[in-house]
Structures are given as C-alpha cells and as structure tokens.
Write a structure and sequence with these properties.
It is globular, with a radius of gyration of 24 Å. Helices cover 25% and strands 34% of the residues. It folds into 2 domains: 227 residues, P-loop containing nucleotide triphosphate hydrolases (Rossmann fold, 3-Layer(aba) Sandwich); 116 residues, Nucleic acid-binding proteins (OB fold (Dihydrolipoamide Acetyltransferase, E2P)). The strands form 4 sheets. The chain has a 6-stranded mixed sheet with strand order 6-7-8-3-9-10, sandwiched between helices. A 6-stranded antiparallel sheet has the order 13-12-11-14-19-20. β16 and β17 form a beta hairpin. The protein is built from 9 helices and 20 strands. It has 357 residues and is an alpha+beta fold. The two termini are 33 Å apart. Keywords: ATP-binding, Cell membrane, Membrane, Nucleotide-binding, Transport. This is ABC transporter ATP-binding protein. Belongs to the ABC transporter superfamily. One of its GO terms (molecular function) is ATP binding.
C-alpha cells in the first residue's frame, strides 16, 4: 500500500511551447491516503483516463510529479511502481484455468509455488471463485471473468495501488450491484489503496469513502458522497450528482439580498455586498409546494416508485421537486418554497464563499 501524491500536475497531448494549447488535465494537487477507497468521477472526455494513465506510469505528465509515499516515481515504469490495474473489459487467459489466471502475476514475479497456492486460495475465497479454480476461464460468464480480473489485481500482497478503470461497464445491472458490493467488502478486508474510475455516480458513491469529481480536465470538488450531495462546490457537481440533478436558476444580488425573478430568496451562503448576476442552486429534494412563495406552473409528473418527480415552470425556467408517493399534487398554478439551509448562490459556476473559489 502507499500514499499517492500528485504534485503540481498537468498534462497536454500538444506541445506546450506552442502557446494556448488544450490541457487534458489542468493543474492540480491531490493526495490519496494510504489504504483508502477513492473514486475518480466525471463524464467521458473529462481527463479521468489521462490521470489514471499518469498514475499508472503509462503516460508521463507534461508538468508535475507523482509520489508514492514521498518517493518520486514520475519517471518509473508501471512495473517499477508496483501497481495493479483492472480494466473495463476483463483481461483473461481463456486457455488457462481460473487458478492459473489468478496465480499469473505471482509467477511472473518469481514467487515460489509453495507461497502462491495459499495466496491464490485466500483471494479466490474472497472473490467467491473457489468452486471454479480448476475450470478453464473460457467457459465463464462476463461477471465470472471480471471476478478473475479483480482477484488478479488483489493477489499480489506487496502492491502499492489497485486501479479500476470502469470495471463494471460490461456487466448487467443486477450483477453490477453484486460485484460493487463485493468490491467494497474486499477493500474493507484487505485495506489496499484503491482508486475506482467511472462516469457512473452510483458506482462512485457506493464504493468510495472520498470522491474526486472532474470536469473538462479540472478537479471541481473532492468530498464524501454526503458532502457532494449536500454541499456542491460547483454547479457541475450539482448537475452531475443526483437524479434528478440540482436546479440551477439565474438570480441577482441587490442590496445584499438574493433575488429570483425579482422575488427575495433566503440562502445558506453569505451573499456579501457584491452586486450582480449569479446562479441559485437548490436540489429537487429541498423544494416543496407552499401556500406562498415562488409562483410556478406544474407541467409534468413522473412516477419514480417511492416518489414522484414534478416538473414546474417559473418565469421561463424549469424547477423540479420530489414528492413522496401518496402525497397530493396540485395542478396548474402553484407556489414553491426553497429550504433556506439548502439553497446556495454560485458565481461563474463556483459556490460563493466556498472552497473552490
């Protein structure tokens, strides 16, 4: 295991000497604690895979350093970094048995067979592969093959870091839940530093103790699942995490008061004395029907099982709210109330008074 530090890191696939180039990863400083469970979350093209390849040693960053327990590994190969990686599509040797697939990384490093057997048995038990150890891998289902990949990533006792690159993409929804739960259980038992890369918020939030959210090559927030949901530091985090995502509405600050459509709105973060155009963010969970408040019109009702998603329109802007199953829903003209403690102001996407800006 190791503490992973990214120091003043940035990367571009172009020549930075050419001037205004596009950066795949913008400047960042980041630390992954020894033995932690982390997720790197963001949409396709946001820089997740580039950052993963930099940490693994497949790519050398344009700027900055990578440290493993204060040891500079920036110029070292993936083998010298002593890491394991589980890919989106399982890499399995079909002609080998399940046992031989799991044992392969240990044999490749010259470990004695007497040491290999108990280690393979231990990891096979953890990944529920023991009954099929003598089977050929070719006959296994997709989830069985991905379990082999997981086991091979975990079998090395001296590994510094295990990285998962969207490992459940090819798995059907039910088995995704099973494997995700198993992976979380495995981390709690082996306590190896793990980084899980995904565009799926459910996978990230259910696996990781801490999530790093990226957008357009930039880290926009680092936090626990609860922090990301309750205190998004950027409107992108509010949009990307949650289903449905956070309502983001145009607002103004006048005389120290936030206004939406000319109507005062109480907010959680201080508006200071600055005047001007801002954005107001409020999650659907914290919007309610009220006797008085922001006038709106109900435009659609969608049943999501335990609750219903209500679409309303106010002053040309969409506002969503959630209503528990069985709760009456008014039709036509309504008034909406925003929970003051969960209503925040943003400027240029960033939370006013927040850590990001």
């Amino acid at each position: 295991m190791a503490r992973i530090t990214l120091e003043d890191l940035a990367h571009t696939y172009f020549d930075p000497a050419e001037g205004d180039v596009e950066w795949a990863v913008r400047r960042l400083d980041l630390e992954w604690a020894d033995g932690g469970a982390f997720a790197l979350l963001g949409p396709s093209g946001c820089g997740k895979t580039t950052l993963l390849n930099i940490m693994s040693g497949l790519l050398r960053p344009t700027r900055g350093r990578i440290l493993f327990d204060d040891r500079d590994v920036t110029g070292l190969s993936p083998e010298a970094r002593n890491i394991a990686q589980v890919f989106q599509f399982p890499v399995v040797y079909d002609t080998m048995s399940v046992y031989d697939n799991i044992a392969f990384p240990l044999r490749n490093r010259g470990m004695a067979e007497a040491e290999i057997a108990p280690r393979v048995a231990e990891i096979a038990e953890l990944t529920e592969l023991t009954p099929m150890l003598r089977q050929r891998a070719a006959g296994l289902t997709a989830d069985g093959k991905q379990k082999i990949s997981l086991a091979r990533g975990l079998v090395r006792p001296d590994v510094n870091l295990v990285m998962f690159d969207e490992p459940l993409t090819v798995i059907d929804p039910h088995l995704k839940w099973v494997l995700r739960s198993k992976l979380r259980e495995l981390h709690q038992r082996v306590r190896t530093t793990m980084i899980y890369v995904t565009h799926d918020q459910t996978e990230a939030l259910t696996f990781a103790d801490q999530v790093v959210v990226m957008n357009a090559g930039e880290v926009v927030q680092i936090g626990t699942p609860v922090e990301l949901f309750e205190q998004p530091q950027h409107t992108f985090v509010g949009h990307f995490i949650g289903s449905p995502g956070m309502n983001v509405l145009p607002a103004k600050i006048e005389n120290g008061t936030a206004l939406f459509g000319g109507q005062p709105v109480e907010v959680a973060n201080p508006v200071a004395a600055a005047e001007g155009v801002v954005e107001l963010g409020i999650r659907p969970e914290f919007v309610r029907f009220a006797p008085t408040g922001i006038p709106a019109t109900v435009t659609n009702v969608a049943d999501a099982g335990r609750y219903r998603i209500i679409d309303t329109e106010s002053r040309g802007h969409s506002i969503k709210l959630l209503v528990d199953e069985g709760e009456p829903i008014p039709s036509g003209a309504v008034n909406l109330g925003f929970a003051p403690g969960q209503t925040r102001l943003y400027r240029d996407g960033w939370l006013i008074g927040g850590a990001g800006r």
